[in-house]
Specification:
By secondary structure, the chain is of the alpha+beta class. The chain folds into two domains: about 1-250, CorA soluble domain-like (Beta Polymerase, domain 2, 2-Layer Sandwich), CATH 3.30.460.20; about 250-315, Magnesium transport protein CorA, transmembrane region (Methane Monooxygenase Hydroxylase, Chain G, domain 1, Up-down Bundle), CATH 1.20.58. Helices cover about 55% and strands about 15% of the residues. Strands 2-1-3-7-6-5-4 form a seven-stranded mixed β-sheet, sandwiched between helices. The chain starts with a strand and ends with a helix.
Length: about 325
């Protein structure tokens, strides 16, 4: 458990033991759910308020979507953020549970949350703005989480451009369709995730028992706008994947048309030559040309001239 005391929006200090709720400022308790399964007992003892059993279970549910609920004593917000480990082309999310009491913010995470750690280290190093209340601190943490989603846009866009370049390379046929379809599924999950995040924040802002200042309300509006930007990006990327599939079929059709055009030109050139060869292959006795001394050379020369003329004609017409 990490214990931080934030005083009057000006200073932050780490505490080694759990004090009483301060008269000025507020406390931030950060728990790791796997290591501290009885976190709720500590919070109940500190606040003298009972935490609903369903909310306790929600805090331990690693598959829980972003969600908001409240009681007369506290608000609970569950927000799914990016997991610390990110594989190439893939991402995973984990829920972080926020409990907002009067003078207290409680976070329950899986451990290793980069956003939570970064905010905690920033506050302890006394760099940047110190939130004045638990709702302000929750906004700072949520904003850091959403920024990580925004940072996904560049690598995902580069990945899509790389696939498009490979698709248009005739020397190396594109074969990563399983990966592309998996990427599309990831984008769909990202879209749904962002919609759940937006619903959770909107529900909390509209129904919270906490008094939100106008300044903080503007900040939460900006946060929602950032979430919508990620949603828009996910939708755009899904359309890009669909366009990539259509581009693939167009490229295949174009290559097929080129092959058929070449075969058609070859057939058009050889058909009259085959006709000439078949005529003189009938071997009738009364065919004067068969007994001409230079007939063979004339026919071969004529066939070569005809083939060259047809080839030139097709080239002028840009048929190949």
């Amino acid at each position: 458990m990490e214990i931080l005391q934030l005083a009057n929006g000006t200073s932050t200090q780490r505490l080694d033991h759990l004090p009483d709720l301060p008269q000025e400022g507020f406390l931030w308790l950060d728990f790791t759910r796997e290591l501290e399964p009885d976190w709720y007992a500590t919070v109940e003892q500190l606040t003298e308020r009972k935490i609903h059993e369903r909310h306790i279970n929600d805090s331990f549910n690693s598959a829980h979507p972003s969600f908001f609920d409240s009681t007369s004593d506290y608000d609970m917000v569950i927000f799914r953020s990016l997991a610390p480990e990110l594989e190439e082309g893939e991402f995973a999310t984990r829920p972080v549970a926020f409990f907002l009491f009067d003078g207290l913010l409680v976070t329950i995470q899986s451990g290793g949350s980069r956003s939570v750690k970064w905010i905690r280290d920033r506050l302890l190093s006394h760099t940047g703005r110190v939130p004045a209340d638990p709702a302000g601190l929750m906004h700072v943490i949520l904003s850091a989480m959403v920024d990580r989603f925004l940072a996904l846009r560049e690598p995902l866009t580069l990945q899509m451009e790389d696939w498009a370049d490979k698709l248009l390379d005739p020397r190396h046929p594109f074969s990563d369709w399983y990966v592309v379809m998996g990427h599309r599924s990831q984008l769909r999950r990202l879209e749904i995730l962002c919609e759940e995040q937006e619903d959770a924040i909107l529900s909390w802002r509209d129904s919270t028992r906490v008094e939100i200042s106008e300044h903080l309300n503007v900040r939460y509006t900006d946060l929602l706008e950032h979430i919508r930007r990620v949603t828009k990006f996910a939708l755009t990327q899904q359309h890009e994947v669909e366009a990539l599939v259509q581009l693939h079929f167009s490229a295949v059709a174009h290559r097929t048309n080129q092959i058929m055009r070449t075969l058609t030109v070859i057939s058009a050139i050889f058909m009259p030559l085959m006709l000439i060869a078949s005529i003189y292959g009938m071997n009738f006795d009364h065919m004067p040309e068969l007994h001409a001394r230079y007939g063979y050379f004339f026919v071969i020369g004529g066939m070569a001239l005809l083939a060259s003329a047809l080839l030139l004609l097709f080239r002028i017409k840009k048929w190949f």
